[in-house]
UniProtKB/TrEMBL annotation:
Keywords: Membrane, Translocase, Transmembrane, Transmembrane helix. InterPro entries: ATPase_P-typ_cyto_dom_N, ATPase_P-typ_P_site, ATPase_P-typ_TM_dom_sf, ATPase_P-typ_transduc_dom_A_sf, ATPase_P-type_domA, HAD-like_sf, HAD_sf, P_typ_ATPase. The keyword Transmembrane applies. GO terms for cellular component: plasma membrane. Residues 842-851 have a biased composition (Basic and acidic residues). The chain crosses the membrane at residues 54-72, 225-251, 263-289, 638-657, 663-682, 694-713, 725-744, 751-773, 785-806. GO terms for molecular function: ATP binding; ATP hydrolysis activity. PANTHER family: CALCIUM-TRANSPORTING ATPASE. This is HAD-IC family P-type ATPase. Its main location: membrane. It is found in: Cell membrane. The keyword Translocase applies.
């Protein structure tokens, strides 16, 4: 290796032999526990899953009600307790399954570290790095453990994730490097001095890969709603209890006569009905199942709220390389520009291609320019994405520079004076380079200066004087075959696309046009305004941006988010890490750097860009289904609260037993919600989930509560016995509940017919099967009760239809439209191009478009 004969100059007690540790020394450190092993969970712990599903406020209320009923000997009415236990078990089991699936994927795709042991270079898992290990650092690596530099060849690190400063930091022997920083230039060696929990990388990994159910509009809205319910349960339960005791003849008579237990049972029924117990469960299950489904498509979800975030994405920023193109670069041609080129320029290109630290573009030079004579540089300036050029000097050979033409030979300033590198004749060079770039080819220029490159000049990182172009080099990238279809899907779904790349803007624009994007030109990022508001205005008008630095990529994402957009960012390079971390949803390619994958919410494990439409569709399915299911649960909460208040004020006996409510809830909400939460749904997500849900649930709940109260008053005045009144109330609630289910499931087709039909059969069965009817205390209805129940059901159904009609139009008015300027227009080259996501399975659910 190039640093084998170099040692560090900093103070250290470490043995700095270039061979690194021996196998025996590694074993000793492992035995002492001096390894980088650190439990950095890729998902929630088993205990946190149990706590989230078991130890909740409402589970506590349910448990208290369950115990009260058991103590007074009314176990039949404690049926809801067993249902709650079953729901908790199902929810925990679903999340455990998701945890195992995600853990397996994360383990298979865990990053590794490069170390030198016994004189050999090895790739080892991060956990196997030990104290005093010699790290081998190259461009694109993330430092796996805290270490001290012992050798450096223009080693540059990006420590922005640690300090927030995006400027590269030069590292010399003796300097400290912290884990989590990223090598962006040069190469070097470092000896580990902190591992495990003491190293920053493990903390970063733990935070980045945390399995979390937070930072979600759906979940935060539900938590806020549950908080409101918790505040009103106490007063309402006292109101209901008082009404039941009064209806039983008064407090004193009820206590003396032993009828107080019926009042308690009725109060428990009212309390349990008010709690949307299954809603949080269904949300957790939907998130977990969404993550597992994406995992089956080779998409690793590193944070569960990302599933919901996918639904909210309305703008996606794409890096060109690895997304629109395959990422493999091949040499295209050499275009000489010097009439009398300096001798040895082909040998210089051969040296660039054979350099161990060469990037992907430089490595393409190996085949066309094989090494014919070995060259030993006396000084060099490593490539950096911030300046986009590198330089090397050979004894007596002057200085050679390889980089972007517009960076090596920038245009003259406003005063007409050339830059340090500018000289007459370079305008034609830039024009020729722009012409080649417009064809979609990447261009580099090899330039020469007779000025010798000394160590001092290399340290200053300035272009030499009297620099003259020698040859223009062009490279080609293969466009992904699925890119056009994928971009067409985004355009149809109202998801805007912005292409940001570090390459020449005209090259990027040409490739964008090749995949159908309406991009007549690209914007050079060097002209972008620093003000984020001005930048946001420009981003609304333009589609393609080139020569974008890592900091500018982050600023672009920030500017878009400040304008209210939910932004996804894809990329695979180190220069994408800052933007991916800043985006609402960061998406990394498996082929990308470990740093990029560490901060991403999603990782495309097979690197296929065509997964992105399916990823967005999965997020929309989850969010839209949760909203639909929430309307079912919140409608029940609304009518249960309304019933409790109405019957408490009217001093009427509560018209249900807990067991009767448990069965109607299961048939009209619980079982159907489980299936509806997992069905296809392609509706675009719009913020305001809770407002939209409550705008249907509250009016619908009021209608149902008023109808049941009216029925109960009329039945009581008609002298109908209490058990028959309850049987009629149960029938009304079952019929109306199924109608609410039908309204929210429209259009009714496919599996929805089976689900609703099955629940209707179940409602009939609880009346028709004697064993079920006896257990639920359902009796045969008299003609009067049957007529009242039927009339009440029809009135409630009519009211529900009116509520839904008004609700749909109100939602349409409050739903914002996508600004036309933001949607990247994709030109169709042939009719009949499919609009469904590539590789998508199952029919598209259009329910939200029509109801």
């Amino acid at each position: 290796m190039w640093w084998d004969d170099r040692v560090g100059t900093g103070e250290t007690a470490i043995d700095e032999r270039t061979d690194g540790l021996t196998g025996a020394e590694v074993a000793e450190r492992v035995a002492r526990g001096e390894t980088n092993a650190f439990e950095s969970p890729t998902s929630r712990s088993a205990w946190s899953i149990v706590k989230a599903n078991v130890f909740t406020l409402f589970n506590g209320i349910i448990a208290a009600c369950f115990v009260v009923l058991l103590l007074i000997g009314r176990w039949q009415d404690a049926l809801f307790g067993f249902s709650a236990i079953a729901n908790t078990i199902i929810g925990s089991w679903q999340e455990f399954n998701a945890k195992r699936a995600l853990d397996r994927l994360a383990l298979l795709h865990a990053p590794s570290a490069r170390v030198r042991r016994d004189g050999r270079e090895l790739d080892v898992p991060l956990a196997d790095v030990v104290l005093d290990d010699r790290l081998v650092l190259r461009a694109g690596d993330q430092v796996p453990a805290d270490a001290r530099v012992v050798a450096s060849e223009r080693l540059q690190l990006d420590e922005s994730m640690l300090t927030g400063e995006s400027d590269p930091v030069d590292k010399q022997p003796g300097d400290e490097v912290l884990s989590g920083s990223i090598v962006i230039g040069g190469a070097g060696g470092a000896v580990v001095d902190r591992v495990g929990a003491d190293a920053f990388a493990n903390k970063l990994s733990s935070e980045a890969k945390q399995f979390s159910l937070v930072a979600s509009e759906l979940r935060s809205s539900l938590n806020r709603l549950l908080g409101w319910i918790a505040w009103i349960i106490g007063p309402v339960s006292l109101l209901v209890l008082n009404a039941q005791m009064v209806a039983a003849g008064g407090w004193a008579e009820a206590i003396e006569g032993g009828t107080w237990d019926d009042a308690v049972v009725a109060t428990v029924a009212a309390i349990v009905a008010m709690i949307p117990l299954g809603l949080v469960l269904m949300t957790s299950i939907a998130f977990a199942v969404g993550a597992v489904r994406l995992a089956s498509r080779k998409v690793l979800v590193q944070e569960l709220p990302a599933v919901e975030g996918l639904a909210r994405v309305d703008l996606i920023c794409l890096d060109k390389t690895g997304t629109l193109t395959e990422g493999d670069i091949v040499f295209d041609a050499a275009h000489p520009v010097a009439l009398d080129p300096p001798e040895g320029w082909t040998d210089v290109l051969a040296w660039y291609g054979a350099d161990p630290e060469a990037n992907a573009t430089a490595r393409c030079l190996v085949e066309p320019y094989p090494v014919r004579q070995a060259l030993e540089p006396q000084a060099r300036v490593a490539f950096a994405s911030s300046r986009k050029w590198s330089a090397v000097g050979f004894p007596g050979g002057g200085t050679w520079v390889l980089g972007g033409p517009e960076m090596v030979f920038p245009a003259t300033d406003a005063a007409g004076e050339a830059d340090a590198a500018g000289e007459p004749g370079t305008d034609g060079l830039r024009a020729r380079a722009a012409e080649l770039a417009a064809t979609g080819r990447r261009t580099l220029v090899l330039a020469h200066s007779p000025e010798e490159l000394t160590a001092e000049r290399a340290a200053a990182e300035r272009l030499p004087r009297s620099l003259a172009p020698v040859v223009l080099l062009t490279f080609r990238e293969n466009v992904r075959g699925d890119a056009r279809e994928t971009l067409e899907y985004f355009a149809e779904q109202g998801v805007a696309v912005r292409i940001i790349s570090g390459d020449n803007p005209q090259t990027v624009a040409a490739i964008a046009r090749e995949v159908g994007v309406d991009a007549p030109h690209g914007i050079d990022a060097r002209t972008l305004p620093d003000d984020l508001d001005e930048l946001g205005d420009l981003l609304e008008r333009e589609v393609v941006f080139g020569r974008v630095t890592p900091t500018q990529k982050r600023d672009i994402v920030t500017a878009l988010r400040r304008r209210g957009h939910t932004v996804a960012m894809t990329g695979d390079g180190v220069n994408d890490a800052l933007a991916i971390k800043e985006a609402d949803i960061g998406i990394a390619m498996e082929s990308g750097s470990s740093a990029t994958k560490a901060v991403a919410r999603l990782v495309l494990l097979d690197g296929r860009f065509s997964h992105l439409p399916g990823v967005v569709a999965e997020g929309r399915r989850v969010a839209a289904n949760i909203e639909r299911v929430s309307m079912l649960f919140l409608t029940k909460t609304a009518y249960a609260t309304g019933l409790a208040v109405l019957f408490g004020v009217m001093l009427l006996p509560f018209p249900f037993l807990p067991r009767q409510l448990s069965v109607t809830d299961a048939l009209t909400i619980g079982f159907p919600a489980f299936f509806l939460a997992l069905m296809p749904n392609a509706r675009r997500y719009v913020p305001g989930f809770l407002r939209r849900s409550l705008s249907f649930a509250i009016p619908a709940g009021v209608v149902i509560a008023l109808v049941l109260a009216l029925y109960s008053r009329m039945a009581t005045d008609a002298g109908i016995p209490e058990d028959e009144l309850r049987s009629g109330s149960t029938l009304i609630l079952g019929i109306v509940g199924l109608w609410v289910l039908t309204v929210l499931s429209r259009p009714i087709d496919g599996w929805k017919i089976v689900i609703i039909g099955g629940m209707a059969i179940g409602l009939i069965a609880i009346y028709a099967i004697p064993l079920a009817a006896d257990f639920l205390e359902l009796v045969e209805l008299s003609e009067t009760t049957a007529v009242l129940a039927l009339a009440a059901s029809l009135v409630a159904i009519a009211g529900i239809e009116v509520v839904r009609f008004v609700h749909r139009r109100a939602v349409a008015r409050m739903t914002p439209t996508v600004p036309a300027a933001l949607v990247a227009t994709v030109r169709r080259t042939a009719p009949g191009v499919p609009s469904d996501p590539p590789g998508r399975t199952g029919p598209r659910d259009r329910s939200t478009a029509r109801g």
